[in-house]
Amino acid sequence: MKRHLISAADLSREEAVLVLDTAAELAGVSARPIRKLPTLRGRTVVNLFYEDSTRTRTSFEAAAKRLSADVINFSARGSSVAKGESLKDTALTLEAMGADAIVVRHGASGAPHRLAGWVTGSVINAGDGTHEHPTQALLDAFTIRQRLGSPDHGASGRRGAGLDGVRATIVGDVLHSRVARSGVLLLSTLGADVTLVAPPTLIPFGVGGWPCKISYDLDAELPKSDVVMMLRVQQERMTAAYFPTVREYRRRYGLDAGRMSLLPDHAIVMHPGPMNRGVEIAAEVADSPRSTIVEQVSNGVIVRMAVLYLMLGGVEGNS
Amino acid sequence: MSNRPDSRGTASGSGTANRRGAGNDRWLIKGARVLGGVAADIRVAGGVIESVGEGLVADGATVFDADGLIVLPGLVDLHAHLREPGREDAETVETGTRAAALGGYTAVHAMANTEPVADTAGVVEQVWRLGRQAGYVDVRPVGAVTVGIGGENLAELGAMAESAARVTMFSDDGHCVSDPLLMRRALEYVKAFGGVIAQHAQEPRLTEGAQLHEGEVASRLGLAGWPSAAEEAIIARDCLLAAHTNSRLHVCHVSTAGSVEIIRWAKSKGWQVTAEVTPHHLLLTDDLAENYDTVYKVNPPLRTRDDVTALRNGLADGSIDAVATDHAPHPVEAKETEWAQAAMGMTGLETALRVVQEAMVDTGLLDWAGVADRMSVRPARIGQAAAAGHGQPIAPGSPASFTLYDPAAGRERVDPAAHASKSRNSPFAGMTLPGRVHATFLRGVPTAGDRAGDGRW
Ligand SMILES: [Zn+2]
Questions:
Q1: CA of A35, closest CA in chain B: separation in Å?
Q2: Residue B317 is a catalytic residue
Q3: No. of H helices and E strands in chain A?
Q4: CA-based angle B352:B358:B361, to the nearest 5?
Q5: Cβ(A130)–Cβ(A177) below 8 Å
Q6: What is the pLDDT of residues B425-445, one digit of tens each?
Q7: Helix (H) or strand (E) holding B441
Q8: pTM (predicted TM-score)
Q9: What is the pLDDT of residues B132-185, one digit of tens each?
């Protein structure tokens, strides 16, 4: 594995598959009564969160603790950071504390890149601005491989397999979504055919070079989708004229029960959370058997264990 | 790094008197190629070029062996941020003009976005006086168009024009005079004293929070886009207003291919429109931001290879009149941050001529006479520095303001730590560039450089 995980593009297909396979093994361990592994004993993992995200922070925290790492939560609120300390000075502080890995969530795109230039430990991007969120993409890929690996839909769930031929449709505010950027990169690396669906205002300019297709028509894409991933839409986008009203957005791009019926029988519905029920996703869809939303949360811990294991422990060949 | 004595080490201290060679104001420049053409001797006395020809005798003048060097009229920068008053931690008039002299400049237009803003006769006179005290170049203050660069009320343009600083160029640079009515009025008003409005063309609504050229790179990096159309829309509007008011518009730091086309079209109509391009937009592209290195953050942003090509062609065919540095020094901490928080701008005075050689001369787009035209003659005319003796031919009777440059100097790595500017935010750091400024003279007084590399005048 590379020293840092900042972009999903940092992972080759082999490395991405290795993460998924390692996660699959760790999932077996996690099912046992003693859920702690000694792999990262004596290593220090810092959670550096400039944005509140209890969901992601606790996921990383649980992952690190199950590998017996020492975890320091360094939240921007109430710390020296809130008093105007620069990212660089915070980096130097964490460096002095002997952080082996820094898990960083930041509102500014590229903050993990900058951090990586100032520390010797590994930097793991837990979401930066509107740039990327690579561990979210990994847990989504893990979930897809697990779910679609059933006998009636090929053997993609096997160890070593990618997501070849899986048709993944990502729907919503792509422009502001770090989940979408990492998702497009990772899923296509693993062989999936990715389509982005959104109103044209929420498709990034110059998207032509991305490894995916673009569509403005959700109803046309759903019958051709094995996976549909709904992105959170913030209502304040309305005021910036990205779309006229929430009602119109829901009507054209929301996933309700009627639209869900357009999907093939085996297709799954994903959401990175937190959801806006009744906006991009209807309650009956979120709670349906197709929905993987709860699995995504539990898979998140396992996949993050795999990432930490491979980046910190795997180097020394720990068992 | 080279072992040769570096001209940068010997730029002399403050005050014109310190820079006189052995109390002598008579110089004989031996064998300099005038505008890159035929070698000639240049004799200087009393701040003026006395004669130009072959085999001139020293006759008591200090001899400068310029064999292999070219001589250009002193460069004129239409766009520099000298930061004083207010941000002396980033630059002062003293350090900024010293940097300018080392870059071959003899006149610099100082932008108005200081603290306080240069929007009154008092502030422009202060800046002008600081320039006179430093003595490296003629500092020509640019006055703000609106009070406090607030974009609401016209500043006292006439008072600045009549001040000791004799301001002729007005700009809210850093901000766009986006209100079309205010822009119209400003263009009309300055006609009374022959002024020009230098516009920073940026439609504000289209660029809210903009971080990088709107294109493939910004979209991938998750940085808010700065669309080309936001520049082009303002330039098109302002060209129409300049035509309608029959007034003079100067377009600052043109950065897109579309802007070049609009300016070319406006000129074809005979409208009084001029334009400048920065060295960095002639050489660098947006993909340099891949690693969020904030030294590449600038406004307008670095654009694409196609834009660079169009800008070079526009400068070559004269659609773009001038190279202007937009020298924008920032202290280290303003750049050592997340991309979105980082200050916009890059230094440029000490590298401009070398970059122009790389982008325009070594590519065959412009000869040295063309460089003299775009970096001295035309900017002097636009800024009305010609009346003060800038941008004049290397000929008897002209003020002895020129720069001696070695285009054949080996490519050297740019090291901002060695720059005279107080700030280190050069986007060319680590790049190798051709050429070297050997000396700059302002009205017969050496303001930078050394004699034949021996470290002494
Ligand atoms: Zn500007």
A1: 37
A2: no
A3: 11, 10
A4: 100
A5: yes
A6: 999 999 999 999 999 999 999
A7: strand B436-442
A8: 0.93
A9: 999 999 999 999 999 999 999 999 999 999 999 999 999 999 999 999 999 999
- Which of B426, B448, B422 has its CA nearest to residue B437? B448
Helices (H), B163-287: 180-189, 216-221, 228-245, 257-268, 279-283
Confidence of residue A14 (pLDDT cuts 50, 70, 90): very high
Element (H, E) at B121: helix B121-134
Q: Look at residue A49 and tell me if it is in a domain.
A: yes
| ipTM (interface pTM) | 0.92
Mutate to test the interface with A, among B220, B223, B291 (most CBs of A within 10 A): B220
Whether the CB-CB separation of A134 and A128 falls below 8 Å is answered with no
If asked whether residues A126 and A143 sit together in one domain, one would say: no
Dihedral sign of CA atoms B119, B120, B123, B125 in order:
positive
Answer for the pair B63, B41: CB distance below 8 angstroms, yes or no.
no
Domain enclosing residue A111, as ranges = 8-132+297-314
Same domain, A263 and A242: yes
Kindly state whether residue A1 falls inside one of the protein's structural domains.
no
Least Cα distance to B197 among B260, B137, B155 occurs for B155
Could you tell me the distance, in angstroms and rounded to a whole number, from the CA of residue B212 to the centre of ligand 1?
A: 15
Q: Is B78:B379 a contact under the CB 8 Å cutoff?
A: yes
For residues A222 and A262, the answer to whether their CB atoms sit within 8 Å is yes
Average pLDDT of the segment spanning A233-252: 87
Q: Look up residue A85 and give its two tokens.
A: 């300390």
Question: For residue A302, how far is its CA from the centre of ligand 1 (angstroms)?
Answer: 50
State whether A206 and B214 contact (CB < 8 Å). Answer: yes
The answer to whether the CB of B137 falls within 8 A of the CB of B105 is yes
Can you tell me the distance from the alpha carbon of B382 to that of B391, in angstroms, rounded to the nearest whole number?
11
List beta partners, residue B322.
B276
Separation CA B322–CA B386 (nearest Å): 14
